[in-house]
Specification:
Blueprint lengths: L1 E8 L5 E9 L3 E9 L5 E9 L8 E9 L4 E8 L12 E8 H4 L12 E10 L5 E15 L3 H6 L11 E10 L24 E10 L1
Antiparallel strand pairs: 1-2, 2-3, 3-4, 4-11, 5-10, 6-7, 6-8, 8-9, 9-10, 9-11
């Protein structure tokens, strides 16, 4: 992605920032950040992906937070990991634990630990400071002690490297897992759980209390 436009308006309150990223002429991402006087950051992201592109795996954003914020609570589907086509057995509720207790390591590192229909998610440190993500609509979220690049490049669990920060994935939507079989086109999710290229928009608020 290439940054093609950056605007900031700090002449009035709240402060607003707008960024536009693109990839060739096929993908455009416009992001607005509104910084309130109390420190809350309202984030709104719009994706325009040309419909000629293949189906997407996910639509969302990622950030990092100090690894000391290791106590995790959320309201959504749980307690076990779940995806759009694997969540009917996951009840909506309030769940709490550590980041490690909600993570899951497959024999071969891969996408994991997602929860769907997240209303809000909070990460707290030992001093009681909490970082909260509050969706304006239902979110799919996961928190890892590794980076996505590390997960993608690892063939074994011992290749995973924990950092001094946790990766927080804040997604509007992810494609389903699929897996009717593992050797034919049926391995892909059925159409209902695919994410076709097109226009998507979502919003959430970041706060620290």
């Amino acid at each position: 992605m290439k940054l093609v436009n950056f605007e900031i308006d700090n002449g009035s309150k709240p402060v607003t920032i707008k960024t536009v990223h693109s990839h060739t002429s096929k993908v455009k991402v416009t992001t607005h950040y509104t910084i309130q006087a109390n420190g809350d950051v309202e984030v709104s992201m719009a994706l325009d992906a040309d419909k000629s592109l293949p189906s997407l795996l996910r639509v969302g954003m990622t950030t990092g937070i100090d690894a000391n914020f290791a106590d995790m609570s959320f309201y959504g589907r749980g307690p076990f990991e779940n995806y759009s086509d694997r969540n009917q057995g996951a009840d909506l509720g309030l769940y709490s634990g550590t980041v490690d207790s909600f993570a899951y390591q497959y024999v071969r590192p891969q996408e994991s630990a997602n929860r769907t229909d997240i209303d809000w998610l909070s990460l707290s440190n030992p001093q009681g400071v909490a970082f909260k993500v509050d969706g304006k609509q239902a979110l799919s979220m996961s928190v890892w002690p590794w980076t996505a690049e590390n997960v993608d490049s690892s063939a074994h669990t011992y290749d995973l490297i924990e950092n001094n920060f946790n990766t927080v994935n804040i997604d509007l939507i992810q494609a389903g897992i699929g897996g009717i079989d593992s050797w034919s086109p049926k391995a892909a999710p059925i159409d209902k759980y695919k994410v076709p290229a097109g226009n998507y928009q979502y919003s959430f608020t970041l706060s620290v209390k």
